[in-house]
Design brief:
Order of helices and strands: EEEEEEHHHHEHEHEH
Distance between the termini: 26 Å
Oligomer: single chain
Largest sheet: 3 strands, parallel
Shape: globular
Structural class: alpha/beta
Number of helices: 7
């Protein structure tokens, strides 16, 4: 069967993630449906929080960066509320919560430390959500192309996909440094539709 992500209502406390707009959602489950309409020849997926649970590795790298700069480690709940913001916003908010913001001249260096750490440890605990690979395999078997559209940097995206032995599944892969502006603006999706 084909599997598709279904979200629950943004309520409750356990097993939730915070989205771009600050709402909490249950971790997604992939539920079976019978088939995909024949007209859909291209399916576009997000990566983090949709296909893969990358929170453990992102949180671990974030906390190692905080501690290396003299701040406290965040709790799992605190860290998971921040990691979906990505990049500069995530780092700024994390340092504010963990003991105070960094001076501007140190903030860029801290971000570099985080990106290097995460890049070297991005698939220690990261895994596909249950049913995600089955969904992709079903789409491919029905001659659908499966594209990836993520705000992650290209270098990090490739490391994650290679670490999960999944790089061959997606074409194209459009990342946050491929097209500007990034999601939730529509340009990345338009790029896929116009060029692929």
């Amino acid at each position: 069967p084909l599997y598709i992500a279904r979200e629950t209502l943004p309520q409750g406390k356990n097993g939730q993630v915070k989205d771009y707009y600050g709402k909490y959602h249950q971790i997604r489950k992939f539920e079976p449906i019978k088939s995909i309409p024949i007209r859909h020849r291209l399916v576009i997926f997000d990566l983090d929080g949709t296909l893969i649970d990358s929170a453990p590795d992102l949180c671990a790298a974030l906390n190692r960066t905080l501690v290396a700069h003299g701040r406290r480690a965040l709790s799992e709940e605190e860290a998971e509320q921040l990691i979906w913001a990505g990049g500069d916003k995530m780092m700024g908010w994390a340092f504010e919560r963990a003991g105070g913001p960094l001076p501007d001249h140190e903030a860029d260096a801290a971000l570099t430390v985080f990106l290097d750490d995460y890049g070297n440890n991005c698939t220690v605990e990261t895994r596909f959500f249950p049913g995600a690979l089955e969904a992709i395999d079903t789409l491919l078997s029905q001659e659908c192309r499966v594209a990836l559209c993520t705000n992650k940097r290209t270098s990090l995206t490739r490391r994650v996909l290679d670490g999960l032995n999944a790089g061959h599944l997606f074409e194209p892969v459009v990342c946050g440094d491929t097209v500007a502006p990034r999601k939730p603006e529509p340009e990345m999706i338009h790029h896929i539709l116009d060029h692929h």
